[in-house]
Every structure is written in structure tokens, then in C-alpha cells.
Amino acid sequence: MGRSRNPRRAAAAVTAVEEAVDGGLARLVPDPDRGRAWTLLIDGAPQSHVDLDDPAYLSFEYQRRIGHVIDLAAPPGKPLHAVHLGGGALTLARYVAATRPRSTQQVVEWDASLVRLVRRELPLDPNARIRVRSTDARAGLGKVPDGWADLIVADVFSGARTPAHLTSTEFLDEVRRALKPSGVYAANLADGPPLAHLRGQIATVAARFAELALIADPAVLRGKRFGNAILVASDLPLPLAELTRRAAGDPHTARVEHGRQLTDFTGGAPPVTDAAAVDSPAPPPSVFR
User: Fold this and answer.
1) Pairing between strand 104-108 and 37-42?
2) What is the DSSP letter of 168?
3) For 54-71, what is each residue's pLDDT tens digit?
4) Residue among 220, 88, 216, 105 at smallest CA distance from 157
5) Does the predicted TM-score (pTM) go above 0.85?
6) Predicted pLDDT of residue 289
7) Which domain holds residue 93?
8) Which distant-in-sequence residues (6+ apart) come within 8 Å of 56 by Cβ?
9) pLDDT for 225-270, tens place per residue?
10) Is residue 219, in this structure, part of any structural domain at all?
11) In degrees rounded to 5, what are phi and psi of residue 28?
């Protein structure tokens, strides 16, 4: 499919791409407001947004919040060793490559046909040091060398739900093994009232990391609606003041919870183990209307 680098021509001429992938029906829809930007949907659920001309641009609110974590994971411009569990349109890997040149990244995306579609229609910068593995996220994480990663991002959804085996203390043990002692873990979680899944995930991560913070829309934290929350963890102190400032300055303002308030938020929920783990809850149909 031919593309123009002229934004006006691109907006007028480029049409959506639709293709069956392992995870369902994928659609790449051009962004009418940005010349070479696309939104990826799987079975109608928005997954990723990519601007090929400006990969540092993050459209989705949850991706901007993870972007703040990436920005603060090391001094500006310093290359990272990053692992992305869940690839989608490779938005966050592109972001790291654009904002931290010479970073070395591994992306684990189980849907091999989706990877082929994205590589074909939204090609990566050939100079970006991004390796993509098409395998299960936990299995792929198991192949990362001990202490290799500065950053691990978990953003894995199958049918809009996070698989159970990526929600347990045993999974977090693998995360810790692959991280450097100074490393940072960020997970995209989705939940709605009564927030049992979110509370359990906070308790689970708290059982394995010394420092935690949660970035989310206040309405989600109050149990008023279904939405995303970004859980950030490390064994070193997190840059809470700057995370809070950036989250508050987003177009969709978010709150940062940490410390005693975050502990109280769990309501005494126990850590999740492999034996008790279940998939995250399915979003209500109204979320994607």
C-alpha cells in the first residue's frame, strides 16, 4: 500500500487496513489529524497509537503515563536495556528508541501475525535496536538474562484481559530476576468497580518490591468507572514528586498514590499466587463505544 509523506495527501488518500491476526480482527486506522499516524484496534478495542513521523508522540493516556516512567527511569537521553511484555504496534519501544537513542530493547508479543502486520504497515526505524520475540510473555521473560534490564514494561492483554499467569508473585519473581537492582517495573492494569483485581495486583507487587506508586484517573481510583492504572515498582526510591507533577499536567489529569495511602487502598487484599490467579476482568462493552 503506497503512502505519501505529505500529511494532507496522506489524510485524504490512506485508508484503514484490516487483517485477521491470531488475537482477532486487527484494524489499522489512519489518524485524520496527523499525517502518518495510526491507531491499532483488535476486535474493536483500541490497543496502540503510532505516529511514524514523531514516535515520541504518545496519544493514549495510559501510554503517556508509562512514557513518564520511561523518562524518569534514568537521566535524560541515557540508553536503557528495556523489555516490553506485550507489543501491540510497538509504540513504547519506538518511544524509547526516539527519546533514548542506542537503547537495546526486547519486545515479547505472542501474536506473530500481528507482529508481521505491524512490521509491514508500520515499519520500525532500521537503526532502532529492537528485537521482537513472538512467544508467551512469561516464557519470553524467562529468556532475558539475570539482571539485564533497566526497565520492564508489562502491557499484555488477550481479548482485553491480562492473562492470569502474568498476575502472580511467581511472575513477579521472574521480573525481579531479569531486572538490575536499580531497575524499574511498570505494569498497565485495567479494572473497574469494585477494583478487586487492582487491589490484588498492588498487594502482589508490594510483596516483591520495596517501593510502589500507582498512576490513575481519580474516577478510576474511586471506583466510578472502568479504566487503566499504571503500577510502578522498584527497590530504589521512585521520583514521586516529578511523576506527580507530570501526571497532574497531562491532558487527562491523573493522580499518583504511594506509601500508606496505597497500602490502605488494597483493603488487606492478599498477594496473588499462580494457584489462585485469574484473568483480569473484561471491560464493559460501553468502554469502547
Assistant:
1) unpaired
2) S
3) 999 999 999 999 999 999
4) 88
5) yes
6) 53
7) 55-288
8) 95, 98, 99
9) 999 999 999 999 999 999 999 999 999 999 999 999 999 999 999 9
10) yes
11) -105, 115
Sign of CA dihedral 83, 86, 91, 92: negative
Q: Which three cell numbers stand for residue 268?
A: 488487606
- Does some domain include residue 94? yes
DSSP 123: P
Cα–Cα distance for residue pair 289/277, rounded to 1 Å: 29
- Helix, strand, coil percentages in the chain from 3-state DSSP, rounded to 5: 30, 25, 40
Residue 266 has a CB neighbour count (10 Å cut-off) of 18
Q: What is the pLDDT of residue 243?
A: 98
* Other Cβ atoms closer than 10 A to 247: 22
Residue 109 in grid coordinates: 508479543
Contact of 140 with 108, CB cutoff 8 Å: yes
Assigned domain for 23 exists: no
Q: Is the pLDDT of residue 4 over 70?
A: no
Which residue from 198, 205, 203 is spatially nearest to 221, judged by alpha carbons?
Answer: 198
Radius of gyration of the chain (CA): 18
Looking at the domain assignment, is residue 50 inside a domain?
A: no
